[in-house]
Amino acid sequence: MRIRRAAAVTVTALATSLALPPATPVAYADDGIRAQQWALDALGTDQAWRTTKGAGVTVAVLDTGVDASHPDLAGNVLEGKDMVGFGARRGAKSWARHGTAMAGIVAGHGHGENRGDGVLGIAPEARVLPVRVILEDGDPARKKARSTRGNALAEGIRWAADHGADVINLSLGDDSKSAHPEPAEDAAVQYALKKGAVVVASAGNGGERGDHISYPAAYPGVIAATAVDSDGVRAPFSTRRWYATVSAPGDDVVIADPNRRYYEGWGTSAASAMVSGAVALVRAAHPGLDPAQIKRLLQDTARDAPAGGRDDSRGFGLIDPVAALARAGEIEQRSSLRTTAHAKKYFGPGPDDPDDDGGPAAWAGPVAGALGVGLLVAGVALWRGRRGALGHRR
Are 156 and 197 spatial neighbours (Cβ–Cβ below 8 Å)? Predict the structure, then answer.
């Protein structure tokens, strides 16, 4: 059943354009927020949380900034970095809205008595490392700036990888007609992957605008998230492209805002944050898995796989954190197996016999060794003689 409370929430866009127009808010007093988080049930979080809630894992949220004081995030947000250096500041309407929403999807822990109110993230005990790399669409400074990205994204990815990020969430991108790969961004992604950080990005919101390729989702090694609705059907706005890895909830998603109110949003941005939360759970329980193993793990354990196993709309299917956690244990166990050298056991002299009486067994070894040395000397002499003979023939 699709849950929608039109009187309580208003749809806003969580697009790669980062649009979050004014909406009718839901006050904290409204205790219907948790009931509207259909994605928690769809992803089986209650069962996954029996294993882990993401404690010990750091998820870098590269976005418009994160409101660390938000009740649903308080205590979960680390000190981050502003790679932009200008634009809206705390208190402004266009400050940290999209980034706070994404952080809540990843690691929101709710608030109030028993934390029963507000937004719960997929990994509510994970830490968020905020890195501001882009301005909100509504930021007045955006009109004055020639570019809201520049090198900020590439530098932000490297900074996050160097400052402990286990997962890097990129709920952003360029899916315009002129979108093209940026060598610096591609290199930064590869740098992060080599350092062990899993990189997740939104596939793009161009499903109704030509399905243009979106970057950074299309860079090699990235887990690209497409969006589905509460029925598991591809959301119309979700980009269909060859790089789609898996799908996740991305429609009618309840999000937290710095204004201390809630909105209902849509977009592959939300789907990316969901996937990052799922990766955080896997990383918390199985830290030995590398980015490539985790990407393959999500693909292999995805639910409702398309005909043929994969398509450009939903990748390999809907992420399944419970199945991923179960399979991850098997992979990590296999990966931990190492060849052990037993030089002393198989190639050493063997144990001494305390009752050694100097019988045949005592002198057989030395004699055999002496014979071996003699044969070796003879072999060398013969080889030298043959070498000399060959030289003489030349």
Answer: no
Judge contact between 79 and 222, C-beta under 8 A.
Answer: no
Tokens of 358: 């100097």
What is the C-alpha separation between 145 and 168, in angstroms, rounded?
26
Nearest by Cα to 108 from 125, 90, 96: 125
The rounded distance, in Å, linking the Cα atoms of 66 and 78 is 10
Name the strand (E) or helix (H) holding 293: helix 291-301
Nearest Cα to Cα of residue 170 among 213, 111, 214, 209:
214
What is the end-to-end Cα distance of the chain in Å, rounded? Answer: 91
Task: Supply the residues annotated as catalytic.
Answer: 63, 98, 269
Of residues 128, 41, 56, the one with CA closest to residue 283: 56
Give the integer Cα–Cα distance in Å for 200 and 282.
Answer: 14
Interval 122-180: pLDDT, tens: 999 999 999 999 999 889 888 766 545 579 999 999 999 999 999 999 999 998 889 99
DSSP 77: B
